[in-house]
Amino acid sequence: MKRMNRNNRKRQWAASLVAILFVMVSVFNVLSGQASADTPLTVAQAIAKNNNGSNAVVEGFIVGEVFNSKPIFTNFGDDFNLLIADTPGEQDKTKLIDVQIPSNFRAQFGLKTNPTLVGKKIQVTGTLATYSSMNGINQQLHSHLRARLVGVAVERHQIRQILVARIWAYLLHYRME
Description:
Elements (H helix, E strand, L loop, with lengths): L1 H30 L11 H6 L6 E13 L2 E3 L8 E5 L11 E4 L5 H4 L11 E8 L7 E3 L7 E4 L6 H21 L1
Parallel strand pairs: 4-6
Antiparallel strand pairs: 1-2, 1-3, 1-5, 3-4, 5-6, 5-7
Helix pairs in contact: 1-4
């Protein structure tokens, strides 16, 4: 009987340790200062930073692309960039950000291949820098461009919530035995 209680205590202790470690890692990720999809900049806020070379997460609507040095909003010519704005349908060049699309994202986000993306909300992470003579987001040597359509993927905080719930369920299961 004592042996069984000792084993249960060891299991409870191990499960508690795992839960504590998980919480510590989650808190460290939040405090590390990395750009967060929970607090993206608007296009206007990113433009106000005046292409300062900082890394940022920017959220906006896909409105078009730059082709042959001109913004276009229909009949797209390539998959190399896209324009984002705070409002769908925006065409004022001063309210747009030109986002460079690296080759590994062109099939997914290029407008020649995917013209139906116009009007969709997107978040991009990259370096705020001039691109095609406009306010831009591009990939520098120290920055890796990331992009995702908003509302398509499971958010990082949702994954954490799921993991925390599973850990609590695990802990409660062993306490009931």
